[in-house]
């Protein structure tokens, strides 16, 4: 399987593995399930520092855009995307908040 194929299937599989199966069509992560995902599935120090699993309430409020007390798949994908952006910024030294929304002189957005 190609690397991007693997990444996509892993994101879906991880979400479905931890999300409560209440028999509904839309599985969601409650606070405890989200905490488990963050503690067990993120091991690199660079990423662990970005989400504080100890303060799960803050992470939940940040991710739960529709304020239903749970994280749906769309909200979970937003979290994964944010972590990927943080890792990209650390690895490349680009994309920080300085000049957000504007290209800095001599730099192009990726």
Approximate shape: globular
Helix content: 40-55%
Beta-strand level of the residues, as a percent range? Answer: under 5%
Structurally, the number of domains stands at 1
Provide mean pLDDT, rounded. 80
Quick description:
Residues 91-110 are annotated as: Disordered. The chain has helices spanning 3-18, 31-41, 45-48, 56-63, 73-92.
Please write out the topology.
Blueprint: H1 3-18, H2 31-41, H3 45-48, H4 56-63, H5 73-92
Throw out a few tags for this protein.
mainly alpha; disordered C terminus; Recoverin, domain 1; 110 residues; globular
Would you kindly provide a written description of the structure presented here, covering whatever features stand out?
The chain has 110 residues and is an all-alpha fold. The chain has one domain: Recoverin, domain 1. The chain is 54% helix and 0% strand. The protein is built from five helices and no strands. The protein has helices spanning 3-18, 31-41, 45-48, 56-63, 73-92. 11% of the residues are buried.
């Amino acid at each position: 399987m190609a690397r991007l194929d693997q990444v996509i299937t892993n994101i879906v599989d991880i979400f479905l593995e931890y999300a409560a199966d209440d028999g509904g069509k839309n599985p969601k992560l409650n606070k405890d399930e989200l905490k488990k995902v963050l503690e067990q599935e993120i091991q690199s120090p660079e990423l662990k520092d970005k989400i504080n699993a100890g303060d799960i309430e803050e992470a939940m409020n940040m991710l739960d855009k529709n304020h239903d007390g749970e994280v749906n798949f769309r909200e979970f994908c937003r979290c994964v995307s944010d972590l990927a952006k943080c890792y990209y910024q650390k690895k490349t030294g680009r994309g920080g908040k300085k000049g957000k929304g504007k290209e800095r002189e001599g730099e192009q957005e990726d």
